[in-house]
Amino acid sequence: MTNSTAVRDQLTDLLRLDQSDSYLGEPGSAEPAGGRPSMPTVVAPPAAASTAQLIDRYDGFLLDAYGVLVHGGGAFAGAAAFLRTLDRRGKRWCIVSNDASKTPEFAGARYQHMGLPVPVENLVNAAMLLPGCFARRDLVGAPMRVLGPHGAVAMVERAGGVPLALDNPAFAALVVADESGYPLLPVLDDTLTAVVDLCESGQPPALILPNPDLTYSRGPDSLGFAAGSLAAMLQAALNQRLGADAPQFEPLGKPQRALFDLGLQRLGLERAQVVMVGDQLATDVRGGRAAGLDTALVTYGVGRWDAALAGGDVPTWLLAGL
Fold first, then answer.
1. pLDDT-derived band of residue 36, with 50, 70 and 90 as boundaries?
2. In CATH, what is the architecture of 128-251?
3. Nearest to residue 221, comparing CAs of 148, 298, 281?
4. Predicted structure pTM score
5. DSSP 56-94
6. Cα-to-chain-centroid distance, residue 1
7. Where does the chain hold its CATH 3.40.50.1000 domain(s)?
């Protein structure tokens, strides 16, 4: 399998939970070629757990941010008390977030403003994976178009990229970091055109996706589109226009293993001592399981357990509240 094919398959698998064959395709048919309907797979529900039970069982916690501790409008009830309990019990914890729109310093100050006792050293986000990506792909010093707010631009600069103005089409890499910070549809239209022009002139840009999340917790019980949805839309259009010559997005954050490993390094614990707590099957649970971790899926806010959607992404625990 070529690297391009592998990356395409990886992103396709991330951006869907059904068995369709394309980004925008219809879900796979439940009726196989022989004409007989397939039997549904029975998935046993995970065990329910309380935060007290998890604290008793594990020495370390990797915590998703949006959907677990916070939403777009503030902190979830019980989040501050939960973190203080972890500190009081001597548990090690780290926020492991796909959010690539903020510097750690800004994110830490924002959490403190929400009343959450989150020191900067307890923060790991997907933008921290950009330095390794740029070095590996020989993009240090390269001109880049960055879709995201000032924090995303700052993280690209720290990683060695050279952000350009959004009206400059001469970029060697496109970093889709966030859905905020720019006029969404006009910039996406222009970016699609610029990428196609670069490819057709023999200069295909690298496509980097720090945050593969399709959605995020915009409010206590409401969803918003995240950077992964924008990348999926661009990828589908590029695939249709350029076919096999279309460049493919490289996802960096969860469910890729690198972010989990970075969080584990911060904790300094063995995998068996740690649980990953998240709100999304496709990123938190899938990635946590692949990284050898027990996982807990929250079922408050926008978090949902649905056996029909889970496939193999079955968490160890269900957590109804903090």
1. low
2. 3-Layer(aba) Sandwich (3.40)
3. 298
4. 0.86
5. HH-SEEEE-SBTTTEETTEEPTTHHHHHHHHHHTT-EEE
6. 25
7. 47-98+258-319, 128-251
